[in-house]
Amino acid sequence: MVNVNKKCFFAGIAIAAFSGTTVAAQDDWRTNYTLFGTPGIIDMPSAVAPADGELSSTLAMFADNWRTTFTFQVLPRLTGSFRYSQLDTYDRSFDFQYQILTENGSRPAVAIGLRDFLGTGIYSSEYIVATKTLSPNVRLSGGLGWGRLGSLNGFTNPLGVVDERFETRSSFDIGKGGTARLDQFFRGDAAFFGGLEWRINEDWTAVAEYSSDAYERETTLSGFNRRSPLNFGLKWQPNDVYQLGAYYVYGTDIGVSATIIIDPKSSNFPSGLEGAPMPVGVRAEGIAAAASWDTPQAQTSGVGTLGQVMATDGFRLLGAEVVGNTMRVQYENTSYRTEAQGLGRVARMLSHVAPINVDTFVLEPTQRGIALSAVTLSRSDLEELENTPNAAALSYDRAIFGDAAGPAPAIGWDDPTPAFLWGISPYMEVALFDGDQPARADLGIEASFQYEIQPNLVLAGAYRQRIVGNRDEIGAISASTLPAVRRDGLRYGAESGGGIENLTLAWYGRPAPNLYSRVSVGYLERMFGGVSAELLWKPVDSPLALGAEVNYVAQRDFDLGFGFQDYDIMTGHVSAYYDFNNGFQAQLDVGRYLAGDYGATFQLDREFDNGWKVGAYFTLTDVPFDDFGEGSFDKGIVVEIPTDWVLGRPTRDTTATRLSSLERDGGARLRVDGRLYEIVHDGHQGNMGDQWGRYWR
């Protein structure tokens, strides 16, 4: 129980937070990130919500506590965090915070949060917190916490008035993680916490707080000496990219934090470094175009000219034809992030090269040799709308989207691009969350090649050789009742120092309208080789897609040579995809996994117009949590970074990072490259509509 003075002291803070002051919320206040890497004061949370879509990565430490946290503003009011901590052990945890009310007039912002609700429970706590801007430079927060946030000067849970079961919380017991302990949420003693932010100037902010976390585990196991509930700190943030903090915490220790902040909706190169597109060629101005392509020789010559023009701007012409007053062009966008931007650039090229009598352009963007869609544009609309206000929206309204199944255009182009491409580049591979060491890394050389037999039939492979690193220093591999399909992944290439990463022959096709196909054979990934076949049904104008994949694979030898082990399996899934047309895409896969278990994987991604993608997934199968082991079930976060966002020059390359709580055998799926949905959906109406703002760029 708390003493009266402390209760009254904090009650004053809470009342002030809910008081009738009418200072407007300061929209220009930058979010303060805590030692937990979440919005708040120092160790305590606040009700502040970062900017929608904001990403942050925080490294913080004090005493023997180290925390690395990845935080994403999933929605304008929903904040999600994944944390990896070093205490007396290594620990992974997930947080959620939802802002129930925004600050408005005399009303404070109010948020409810769950900390470590899907981890081992070391930081397990729940809270409700209010934040109020008292003056242009002062912001106050006060809240009520349970679990660890109710462990100092706690009192009987006020929710006991609703149900007396809220007054009791089960004893603290670190589990294997991965399961939400619903019987603990908002149960047991509650305690007050609060804090103050004082913005000294635009760059510096002083912070102070009263913490309700008793740090009982750290005091018992690591000798942490907690003398005071008061923490003080100073934060420096000279720009929107990083934040540094220094603190005096719990009356004994100095703490520091560093946060990198990324706004995926913006870029250091908002207009890009790509060259300006061609202006629209207006026929009435006497452009230098052929009068007609009414003979085979004229069409062949015209296609040759078009192919050369398109190649100068990063496009590969596959074929074209003129029928009546309609010109149909099939091409591959090899440079620009979005098919919408590529579409606009190609259309402007056609306005210069197409015969004067052509009134309609039918553009068919392709990837992996398969046509994705057929977009019909009026040449007159191009001439009319180029410099018109709201030109992008008007152009989209007048475009007609259709399926591109069927024969290729009559006249092909002899593309001078070499069919065989190869390269040598450095690589760095990081392995996270090993039980004995939080991170291992290799640095080496990768040699890769690609041989295009046909645009839709490609042989490709990669070989890696480690130069330095410690990924071969394999830690303990925990026992399991399941086949070792993932848990010994660090053993691959560990002793040999390298080997064949992949070597595949992939064939893509369009068997019928709205249908796409893929067959891949070879060493499909580092751990498995075999045959993979996939079929996708995806109408151009539908947000829904359905797919099926079947694989027969065998486990590869650890030396990454040409041999196989004696484990083989038939695996496969049926899949449903849904594009909500607001940047969110959902995917559900149901089927058999590599260890022979049956179940389903659900993934939700948020993709921004510039190519950034952040998603989360989880898999539940018929493997019991105890047999699965630590983590209880497979789950994680996927971040995809577009290379052009970093470099500013046009490229379709991306770098993907998977943050998994722990890689084990249950729910393991084959990692085959080039699955159809990722190839197809960018060229369909929903995704192009989201990105149509780039049409005139």
Could you characterize the architecture of this molecule?
The protein is mainly beta and 697 residues long. The chain folds into three domains: 4-262, monomeric porin ompg (Porin), CATH 2.40.160.40; 298-416, GMP Synthetase, Chain A, domain 3, CATH 3.30.300; 420-686, Porin. Helix content is 12%, strand content 42%. It has a 13-stranded antiparallel β-sheet with strand order 20-21-22-23-24-25-26-27-28-29-30-31-32. Strand 8 and strand 9 (204-210) form a beta hairpin. Helix 3 (296-311) packs across helix 4 (339-353). The longest helix has 16 residues, at 296-311. Pfam families: YjbH. InterPro entries: YbjH.
Strand content: 35-45%
Class of secondary structure makeup: mainly beta
**Major beta sheet, specifics?**
13 strands, antiparallel
Number of domains: 3
Count of individual helical segments: 10
Q: Approximately how much helix is present in the residues?
A: 10-25%
Strand segment tally: 32
Q: Assign an overall shape.
A: globular
For the termini, the CA-CA separation is 64 Å
Pfam families: YjbH (PF06082)
InterPro entries: YbjH (IPR010344)
List the topology elements:
Layout: H1 4-17, E1 55-62, E2 65-73, E3 78-86, E4 90-101, E5 109-115, E6 125-135, E7 138-147, E8 191-199, E9 204-210, H2 216-221, E10 230-236, E11 242-249, E12 253-262, H3 296-311, E13 315-323, E14 326-333, H4 339-353, E15 360-367, E16 370-371, E17 374-378, H5 379-385, H6 391-398, E18 400-402, E19 411-412, E20 420-432, E21 439-454, E22 457-469, E23 498-509, E24 515-523, E25 528-537, E26 544-556, E27 564-579, E28 584-592, E29 598-607, E30 613-621, H7 625-628, E31 634-642, H8 643-647, E32 654-660, H9 676-680, H10 685-690
Parallel strand pairs: 14-15
Antiparallel strand pairs: 1-2, 1-12, 2-3, 3-4, 4-5, 5-6, 6-7, 7-8, 8-9, 9-10, 10-11, 11-12, 13-14, 13-19, 15-16, 15-17, 17-18, 20-21, 21-22, 22-23, 23-24, 24-25, 25-26, 26-27, 27-28, 28-29, 29-30, 30-31, 31-32
